[in-house]
Amino acid sequence: QKRLVESGGGLVGPGGSLRLSCWVSGSIFSVFSGYDMGWYRQAPGKQRELIASISSGRTTTYADAVKDRFTISRDNSRKMVYLKMNSLKPEDTAVYYCNNIEQPLAWGQGTQVTVSS
Predict the structure, then answer these.
(1) How far apart are CA 45 and CA 54, in angstroms?
(2) Contact criterion met (CB below 8 Å) for 91 and 24
(3) Tens digits of per-residue pLDDT, 59-73?
(4) pLDDT tens digit sequence for 10-48
(5) HSE of 2 in the Cβ direction (CA atoms, 13 Å)?
(6) What is the secondary structure of 16-44 as a DSSP string?
(7) CA distance linking residue 30 with residue 28, whole number of Å
(8) What local confidence, expressed as pLDDT, does residue 62 receive?
(9) Is 5 buried (19+), middle (13-18) or exposed (0-12) by CB count in 10 A?
């Protein structure tokens, strides 16, 4: 059974950086490599939103709020998706999740990112 496992969150000051990781356990290379994957976030009192995506062909897209600061990447051999976050702002504080965009799996537990001085 496929399961999403996010990690790498934490507390960081404004302007800091973090790298989030997402492992799609239970998947095999040939299946995972065909997934279009996305990173989502949910801030307190707000709906979950898609902030970055990477297609099976490695085309990336970003929400305006994170463009030029965040970078999504993937390692198909490890069934991993990453989100490098630079120049973090307090408004980036949220729980971050990953998922298959077109055929969502059950959501993982997410990883908390808190940006505060």
Answers:
(1) 27
(2) no
(3) 999 999 999 999 999
(4) 999 999 999 999 999 988 777 899 999 999 999 999 999
(5) 20
(6) --EEEEEEEET--HHHHTT--EEEEEE-T
(7) 6
(8) 98
(9) middle
